[in-house]
């Protein structure tokens, strides 16, 4: 993604939070790939590329855009005009537990409260379905994301080790919603 230096803060009214459409596909894939690569902070770029190809290929994301259900809340985007600057995806684990599966923000728009707005939007959708608990997973090495989720009231519950590499160890977090 092209790096653009911005001097002024965004007006939150300029940003539209909405369910993704097929028109957003390429931008969602690009933000997810860049965000995953940045969050993983793994030295072995081939392993990161393998994971990216497993999770963020266009056919999979398209299917998830088109097949919103009570189990999968879909992809939600933050748009500034026609540009997607943030994405979140999540769904339902069981009758009372929801999950944030993915949350990525264009690095040019970090610290603009876009992540919080996306989480709030998905959380409201999940609450309407009767969920009272929300899970999130993130890389153990991603201290910035850890602080973000803690600020939202999430607590660490356990680590999930990756069978292929300890670099991909994640933290499972939980909060009441």
From TrEMBL:
Keywords: Acyltransferase, Transferase. InterPro entries: Acyl_CoA_acyltransferase, GNAT_dom. Signal peptide: none annotated. Residues 15-177 form the N-acetyltransferase domain. Pfam families: Acetyltransf_1. Transmembrane segments: none annotated. GO terms for molecular function: acyltransferase activity, transferring groups other than amino-acyl groups. SUPFAM superfamilies: Acyl-CoA N-acyltransferases (Nat). This is L-amino acid N-acyltransferase YncA.
